[in-house]
Specification:
Helix content: 10-25%
Strand content: 15-25%
Radius of gyration: 18 Å
Number of strands: 15
Structural class: alpha/beta
Protein name: Amidinotransferase
Strand order of the largest sheet: 2-1-15
Largest sheet: 3 strands, mixed
Organism: Actinomadura napierensis
């Protein structure tokens, strides 16, 4: 009898897809109010350091071959750096944002105005409260939509009707993870990474059913906003402190690109918060 040598399971070959992103330089970044558990005005913030970290994030995207557009920052809007919240762009159509807190309400019109002027004329100004890609994450066949803290469930239905894509509602229950993009990110177009503790029992069951091969993050990595990451199918731009998650991604065949956004984390933001994807 001939015994064949054992073979190691091969690591999947991941393919990167060139993306187009919209970002906003944090020239006016400050923590002057508290609208999520990460924000503490008394602790202060350093706008210069925030700009340096943001510039490194933008440079990482450019080095990976992605296109980065810039929207001009507006004085008095310290959170405008978090471009992901400004809209949801799918199939060239723009579902605008309507912010929960008045401190950020002017950001929605600023982003939709820019998008209209830069090749995205098909814009829906929403009736229902939603915070753009903060709570809407797009995969190949479905849009995952968060609720519980910021975005109304009615906005999920509004987005589905406008975009013609199925939308799956997921309920967030931990105030540290007030947006879906703080607790979950797409891995390419068919899988995700997420932290189960951020979701209601029913939503965890939905995620287990939809994504049986998901990358599961622990609380320590979630607590440094390790899941506020951006994946192009192969490369994952991720907060450097999420070391266990970075190792797990590498084992799955992804190429982590660690970045330091510790200053912007003082306002509850990470790489994804700073990045609005413009999907044609």
């Amino acid at each position: 009898m001939t015994v064949m040598p054992a073979t190691e399971p091969s690591t999947p070959q991941r393919t990167a897809t060139r993306r187009r992103y919209l970002m906003c330089r944090p020239e006016h970044f400050a923590v002057t109010y508290a609208i999520n558990p990460w924000m503490n005005p008394a602790a202060g913030s350093d706008a210069g350091r925030a700009v340096e970290q943001w510039e490194a994030l933008r440079a990482a995207y450019v080095s990976l071959g992605h296109e980065v557009d810039l929207i001009d920052p507006i004085g008095g809007l310290p959170d405008m750096v978090f471009a992901a919240n400004g809209a949801l762009v799918v199939g060239g159509r723009v579902y605008g944002a309507k912010f929960t807190f008045p401190e950020r309400s002017a950001e929605g019109p600023a982003y939709t105005d820019w998008l209209r002027k830069n090749g995205f004329p098909d814009v829906l100004i929403p009736e229902h409260t939603n915070e753009g890609e903060g709570d809407f994450l797009t995969l190949d066949g479905v849009i995952l939509a968060g609720t519980g803290f910021r975005t109304d469930i009615a906005a999920h239905q509004e987005a589905q009707e406008f975009l013609g894509r199925p939308v799956v509602t997921l309920r967030l229950i931990d105030p540290r993870f007030y947006h879906l993009d703080t607790a979950l990110f797409p891995l390419g177009g068919a899988n995700v990474a997420y932290y189960p503790g951020a979701f209601s029992p029913g939503s965890r069951a939905v995620l287990e059913r939809l994504f049986p091969d998901a990358v599961i993050a622990g609380e320590a990595d979630a607590a440094v906003l390790g899941l506020n990451a951006v994946c192009d199918g192969r490369n994952v731009v991720i907060n450097a402190e999420a070391t266990v998650l970075i190792a797990a991604l590498r084992e799955r065949g992804y190429d982590p690109v660690p970045v330091d956004l510790s200053e912007l984390r003082k306002a509850g933001g990470g790489p994804k918060c700073c990045t609005l994807e413009l999907r044609p």
